[in-house]
Amino acid sequence: MLNRLTLETVVEALTGVAPAGGPTPLRDAVIDSREASAGAIFFALKGEKADGHDFVGQAFERGARAAVVERQPAGPWPVLDLRRPPPADAVPSPVCLRVDDVLRALQQAARFWRSQLNLRVIGITGSVGKSTTKEVAAELLERRFRTLRNPGNLNNEIGLPLTVLRLTSEHAKAVLEMGFYVPGEIALLCDIARPHVGVVTNIGPVHLERAGSMEAIVAGKSELVEALPPAPEGVAVLNYDDERVRSMASCTRARVFTYGLSPEADLWADAIEGLGLDGVRFALHHGREHEHIRVPMLGRHSVHTALRAAAVGLVEGLSWEEILAGLRTTHAQLRLVAVPGPGGAILLDDTYNAAPESTIAALNLLAELEGRRLAVLGDMLELGSYEEAGHRMVGARAAGVADEVVAVGPRARWIAEEAVRAGLPTGHVLHVETVAQAIDALRGKVGAGDVVLIKGSRGMRMDQIVDELAEGTS
């Protein structure tokens, strides 16, 4: 029988007492009333711009069976105060469940629900490559197992518990991306999700401004492998090519499984050949297994993504046939996608986010492609003390790849300066302060035979450049 989250389970999670009556199945957990549907539970969080309590009525109108609140919202709905001992009778529906702290209640409900389910959880963290690794690993596991993954970027103290509440007894695996800003955050997520497998992609200065230091980032990412159960149940999947990640082997009780480009790793790759927009070809090695494969993911850096996903498949019992078939046909949504541009140009849309490592990886892909290469590179945010050095490193690489560079934003001036210093003619480097100025500079400039990489931190809204240039093709 399918075991699904119920209203009674939520009440028990928040009070320690199972109420009479029910079960009243809950089909989803949401924090946005517009996403509420029949059978949902709505957590009325207070945000910077809106208070969920003002939208409880909308959630109920859309079919929500319960709303978790800190105060009584305006409306006729009954309120069950969970700060007091719950009544012995059945819980009405729809109902408002009153608590002291909605966010803590969300996390507590998810923690309790996870404890009721028997499944394997794979946690994924790192500075770059988490989301794509999550998508490809989940695709591989889905070839044999019912698998849940967190949608989009729901990888924080709100998004991960919402995902956990969507689990049912039918799920055999969950692949959960775990984001990081400050030490203690991943420990909290692990306390909720109770992962058996921990995958660490790499360590870089992403969110250095918030974390404070590289040491704090390493400590924060290490919380995943520290939380794993001991071997053989627990497995830490570590990037052998990243010394900081490799050193995490000393802080886990789990079995360590390494991947990378070195023959010293448990799973490794060589003979890498970038095929531009046709993907990448390489050889995989594991023990006595040696397989040649081409995957439809873009850029040589995608080899590490494939290795991580294959490692998850191996430790979770997939056959080589299943892993190779999955990698060859993966439909995982990549952050970097090719979009038709004006006059037959190709736009490489990598505007979701940016860090020095991921930007250089995108530039490496640009280097594989034929045509006039333009790199439109925006500010990389939250790099802290690494800010100038990171931008200059990108500028130096851009000079070796691009025929022209357009640097967008106040920090991007370092990209422009370093590109010129590295040998790109001054007339081929343009620095502008805003996205609007970049659009004006590029309009009419991009045409047949051009390949344009567009990348920057999400806060820069570089996606507007893609929208404007792509619209010119209609």
The CATH homologous superfamily of the largest domain is termed Mur-like, catalytic domain
Work out the oligomeric state of the chains in this entry: single chain
Strand ordering within the main sheet: 7-8-6-9-10-11-12-13-14
Instruction: Please identify, by name, the CATH architecture of the largest domain.
Output: 3-Layer(aba) Sandwich
**Given the structure, what is the number of helices?**
16
Walkthrough of the structure:
- Helix 1 (7-15) packs across helix 3 (102-115) and helix 15 (435-442) runs parallel beside helix 16.
- The protein folds into three domains: 7-102, Udp-n-acetylmuramoylalanyl-d-glutamate--2,6- Diaminopimelate Ligase, Chain: A, domain 1 (3-Layer(aba) Sandwich), CATH 3.40.1390; 117-328, UDP-N-acetylmuramoyl-L-alanine:D-glutamate ligase; 337-471, Protein-Tyrosine Phosphatase, Chain A, CATH 3.90.190.
- The N and C termini lie far apart (51 Å).
- The longest helix has 15 residues, at 387-401.
- With 474 residues, it is an alpha/beta fold.
- The mean pLDDT is 91.
- It has helices spanning 7-15, 56-61, 102-115, 130-141, 159-164, 185-193, 208-211, 214-226, 243-246, 302-315, 320-328, 356-367, 387-401, 413-421, 435-442, 463-471; strands at residues 28-30, 40-43, 66-69, 79-81, 95-98, 120-125, 147-149, 173-177, 197-200, 235-239, 255-260, 267-274, 280-286, 289-295, 337-340, 346-350, 372-378, 404-408, 429-432, 450-455.
- The strands form three sheets. Strands 7-8-6-9-10-11-12-13-14 form a nine-stranded mixed sheet, with helices on both faces. It has a six-stranded mixed sheet with strand order 15-16-20-17-18-19, sandwiched between helices.
